[in-house]
Amino acid sequence: MKRQTFHIGCLLLMVTLVSLAASGSAFGLVVGQETAPSGDWDVDWSYVYNWNSSSAVAVDPYWMLTARHVGGTVGQTITIGSETYTLQEIVYAPIDSGETYPVDLALLRFDKSLPGYYDLYGGTFPTPPPPTVDKKEVVLVGYGVTGTDYVTHYTMGSGSGTERWGTNEVDDVVRAIVATYSSICIQTNYNSADMTYEVGYGSGDSGGGTFVEDGGTWKLAGINAYAGTDGTAGHYDKSFAVSVPEYRDWVLETVPEPATLALVAVGAGVLWMRRRRRA
Question: Which of 3, 208, 244, 247 has the most other CB atoms within 10 Å of its CB?
Fold first, then answer.
């Protein structure tokens, strides 16, 4: 597996969506991309949230998954609809074997049940895909800035805090070492001539979700984390999401499945009833 090292300046927050505008023109990401995905890209984006000036994704009735560098503080609140949710606990992903720095993921537990959540993708990605194999197409969702499209790269502008989506395809799986994090990531390369609605990550998109269709269901495949340059300052042509399949076991070990919790609750109730009867 390839290792890519970036300096702190590439540590970005959330996703930047790009348009199909002519090279060099500015865009506001309003043509079809600030409304919910539809058609072939019919992903329910309802459970990606604006968290800590960045993003987070619900993966359980009580838990969200985000990038560790997004941060958060126990007691911090988030308002969804008319409900206010309070952060009760933060669990950080451990350090991968043989690495110096921790994985850039964090689980956030809230005090009451969230409106909904996503299943985790457990499949694989070609690394890199042979020319004869189709790359997996993905949908990216986040609350990051807009920017300017130059076809083979993009620059970042303003406008974070608005939920946006776009598309891309997985080009590789790499270990990305950024600042004090070391994580296995899925890599998407940027070229707006390749796909409709093609995008890259921008400041404010970290912690958002990258989704892949699996058996007719869109599942969470990555947590948006970094943008890479083409060698020129401010010119971005690569995006990196911390790979959910690589860290799925850690999530499932930390977050009990709702069905399991229900069975435990029922089992406890039966045990209590039996004890009462024996008494």
Answer: 208
Residue 108: closest CA among 93, 123, 129, 128 = 93
Contact status, residue 211 vs residue 118, Cβ threshold 8 Å: yes
Coil/strand/helix, residue 79: strand
- Bridge-based pairing state of the strands 236-243 and 15-16: unpaired
All structural domains of the chain, each given as residue ranges with its CATH number in brackets, are: 2-278 (2.40.10.10)
Can you give the pTM of this predicted structure? 0.84
8 Å CB contact between 203 and 10: no
* 258: preceding bond cis by omega (within 30 degrees): no
Q: Nearest CA to 94 among 247, 203, 227?
A: 247
Q: What is the pLDDT of residues 130-149, one digit of tens each?
A: 777 778 999 999 998 888 88
Q: Are 55 and 70 in contact (CB under 8 A)?
A: yes
